[in-house]
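[Discussion] Sanity-checking designs against the backbone

I'm trying to build intuition for which residues belong where. Below is a structure token string of 144 positions. I'd appreciate it if someone posts a full sequence so I can compare it with mine line by line.
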């Protein structure tokens, strides 16, 4: 593999073929000078806000980008149930997203992890997964 000094054209610049790659990176880093108007710094080298020219740690300017919504963390409710099942225990996981495909994949993953059978459906309060047997500890660890 030959190192090209001119990445735009892909041509070799005479004399650059034998130079080590790390030297080329340093060389081109020095050649590219980012102006202080883009990332201004004070005399001590601290970054300044481009709007108010105060230190970034002290700046109170609102950012130009709207805040990104935080991803909802799953807070499922795990309970054991044996009513209407002739005394057999079933682990029920409620408050899951209603996404049918995601619920199917999650149910499959939990069934493999616990080594048991089960089913999933969407109820009035969201998605529900039922696993055969008492797997409350394993499910709690899975969602932590």
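Best answer:
Here's mine. Compare freely.
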């Amino acid at each position: 593999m030959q190192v090209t000094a001119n990445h735009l054209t892909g041509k070799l610049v005479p004399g650059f073929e034998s130079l080590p790659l790390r030297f080329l990176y340093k060389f081109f880093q020095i050649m590219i000078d980012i102006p202080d108007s883009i990332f201004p710094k004070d005399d001590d080298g601290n970054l300044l806000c481009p709007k108010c020219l105060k230190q970034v740690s002290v700046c109170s300017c609102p950012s130009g980008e709207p805040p990104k919504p935080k991803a909802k963390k799953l807070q499922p409710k795990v309970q054991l149930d044996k009513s209407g099942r002739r005394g057999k225990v079933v682990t029920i996981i409620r408050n899951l997203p209603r996404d049918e495909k995601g619920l199917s994949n999650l149910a499959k993953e939990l069934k493999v992890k616990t080594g048991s059978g089960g089913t999933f459906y969407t109820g009035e309060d969201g998605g529900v997964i039922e696993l055969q047997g008492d797997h409350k500890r394993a499910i709690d660890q899975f969602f932590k």
